[in-house]
């Protein structure tokens, strides 16, 4: 996988898409917190007027706020890890971790299409790569696969070592492989030094990558 083949504009657009998606998620978190805080305020006013206050309603509102704070913390941590993917051109990358982060960042896209997106079988594998470019490739493959599926489907993405490199699999139970060799995405993948194939036995699309040469 060659970092030099990724146009700077494509990278900027990818960073923008992910940033916009994350900002929408954070905005949703704030909206739920604001709603729960409004409920607590209403309960307080009711109590001031002498109306009985049920502790469980307060507890439910507080739990909602705490849950959204945990959700927001996870979203911000993922965005922080994504931003740091640009720190080095090439480094040793834990592909299972990178896949998990990419799936987390693509979950909103899947939710909008009412498709369940999961990290499938992930074997330990790491290799030298530009983590930002690799996330661009993976995120783009997930987006293309989601376009090929329907509401109610599940998309599972896994990774394993293969021939000195690694292969990512994208599959949907009961469905044919969501990406084929002759699709537009395959051309995009090849432009990044990756290869798209189909595992007929497992009815999965396969994205194969090789280590990136480290800069001298």
UniProtKB/TrEMBL annotation:
It is an enzyme of class 2 (transferase). Coiled coil: none annotated. InterPro entries: HisK_dim/P_dom, HisK_dim/P_sf. Its EC number is 2.7.13.3. It catalyses: ATP + protein L-histidine = ADP + protein N-phospho-L-histidine. This is histidine kinase. It comes from Pseudodesulfovibrio portus.
């Amino acid at each position: 996988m060659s970092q030099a083949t990724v146009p700077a504009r494509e990278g900027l657009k990818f960073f923008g898409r992910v940033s916009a998606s994350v900002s929408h998620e954070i905005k949703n978190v704030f909206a739920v917190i604001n709603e729960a805080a409004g409920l607590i305020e209403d309960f307080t006013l009711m109590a001031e007027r002498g109306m009985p206050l049920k502790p469980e309603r307060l507890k439910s509102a507080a739990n909602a706020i705490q849950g959204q704070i945990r959700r927001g913390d996870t979203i911000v941590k993922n965005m922080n890890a994504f931003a740091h993917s640009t720190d080095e051109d090439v480094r040793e990358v834990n592909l299972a971790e990178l896949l998990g982060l990419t799936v987390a960042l693509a979950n909103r896209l899947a939710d909008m299409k009412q498709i369940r997106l999961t990290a499938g079988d992930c074997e330990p594998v790491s290799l030298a790569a530009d983590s930002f470019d690799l996330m661009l490739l993976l995120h783009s493959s997930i987006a293309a696969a989601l376009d090929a599926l329907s509401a109610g489907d599940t998309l599972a993405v896994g990774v394993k070592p293969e021939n000195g490199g690694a292969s990512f699999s994208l599959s949907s139970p009961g469905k044919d492989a969501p990406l084929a060799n002759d699709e537009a995405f395959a051309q995009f993948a090849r432009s990044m030094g990756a290869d798209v194939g189909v595992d007929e036995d497992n009815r999965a699309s396969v994205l194969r990558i090789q280590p990136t040469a480290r800069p001298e």
